[in-house]
């Protein structure tokens, strides 16, 4: 593994790489056809994981959002567009070392006519504080390229508002088996080569790999095949790159004074889904949530990146969860009556989901080659077809004919929410 010591040389190599190969490769014209939305940072997810189901943009309050290491603009375009669509009073600050990447990001934002973005070229480690404090910071695929990731995360924490949070992505060690073998071979063969010359050596090395090589045997990474030259370079030829195991993610977060709210998707980090053995499941039940996540990573083997949301260590807000009140049996979300909550869907076509659930009251979920099926309660399809992001659960109940009984209806809602929220497919928002 290339765990180089922090140095100015490594930092400038990182900048040089992204000047030559802005990543990921994007074209402004494609903004006419589609919006790329993803984790971390999708607005609905941020509301769920960081703000406990309360949309911070909903009453016109001014919001500041930082995209740290914004690259060619995926997160900045997504957040700026989603803020505008919601009428949020948000300013999004983009910071990146690479002027070439910024040019692409800026052209995408301009193509959409978005006016809520400020572009800055430089290191967020030095500059984040000047433009904050922030309600939300998005830092996807960047911290693991810093000469000192711990210091980088602390710098971001310092510029976060007390109630704010961050969506982060760092590489995961086990799913990237073979990537660091390739990086090490490049280091041994061609440590100083950069840019095109490095790409040429890397490609001939890759083309001649024997079938037994771990990279050749790893089906979970494919950016070097699908991502063009920028993808090949970013995955295999990087000179400043490290990966994390679950325990290292926890340590990383805690040293910065943060608390891990959740990995995404939560179900992927539930070890029980990967084993049918009853004795193993019984042992897993006794583990802490950190241990359970670590076991999930070991069992699954296919986690190539860790996506997770964090808040300050003393922030008590939790992701939305449905619980029952003991005496009355009433269902609550963070002390509020469940019936007033507004359900909304993640990145999934609600009509298609409802149609497929209607067939057999189950859902098949695929995580990078591992698929699992979950049974859903009988009213799931009918409920899902009524979710539009605006109606409350009680409005949805009232729209059924005949009117369902309160308790069984909300019991089905709770069972549906438990499955879909763990897969990042359904969330609940408090009313405005
Ligand atoms: C792998 S790309 C990820 C881009 C983007 N976040 C995404 O997910 O599409 C990493 C980006 O981080 C930027 N970067 C690395 N270190 C940085 C730093 N200290 N300050 C600002 N940008 C940085 C690079 O220039 C590059 O554009």
What would you give as the CATH superfamily of the largest domain?
A: Vaccinia Virus protein VP39
User: What is the CATH C level class of the largest domain, in words?
Assistant: Alpha Beta
The backbone outline, from C-alpha atoms, is globular
- The Cα radius of gyration reads 22 Å
Whole-number average pLDDT?
A: 93
CATH architecture of the largest domain, please? 3-Layer(aba) Sandwich
Sequence of strands across the biggest β-sheet: 3-2-1-4-5-7-6
Strand runs, count? 14
Range of helix content? 40-55%
How many separate domains make up the residues?
2
Oligomerization state of this entry? single chain
Bound molecules: S-adenosylmethionine
Count of individual helical segments: 18
- Main sheet? 7 strands, mixed
Strand content: 15-25%
Structural class assignment: alpha/beta
Q: Ranges with pLDDT <50 over ≥5 residues?
A: 1-6
CATH topology value of the largest domain? Rossmann fold
What does this structure look like?
The protein is α/β, with parallel strands linked by helices and 432 residues long. The protein has two domains: 8-174 and 242-312, 3-Layer(aba) Sandwich (Rossmann fold); 322-429, no CATH class. 41% of the residues lie in helices and 19% in strands. It has 18 helices and 14 strands. The protein has helices at residues 8-20, 43-49, 74-85, 99-111, 124-131, 149-158, 179-190, 195-207, 214-217, 223-226, 228-237, 246-255, 278-285, 289-300, 350-360, 380-384, 393-398, 406-422; strands at 63-68, 90-96, 117-121, 134-140, 160-171, 258-264, 305-312, 322-324, 331-333, 336-337, 342-345, 362-367, 370-375, 426-429. A seven-stranded mixed β-sheet has the order 3-2-1-4-5-7-6, with helices on both faces. Strands 8-9-10 form a three-stranded antiparallel β-sheet, with helices on one face. It has a two-stranded antiparallel sheet with strand order 11-14. Strand 9 and strand 10 form a beta hairpin. Helix 5 runs parallel beside helix 6 and helix 8 (195-207) packs across helix 11 (228-237). The longest helix has 17 residues, at 406-422. 42% of the residues are buried. Mean pLDDT is 93; it is low at 1-6. The structure holds S-adenosylmethionine (SAM). Residues 14, 18, 23-24, 69-71, 74-75, 95-98, 101, 123-125, 140-142, 145-146, 234 line the site of S-adenosylmethionine.
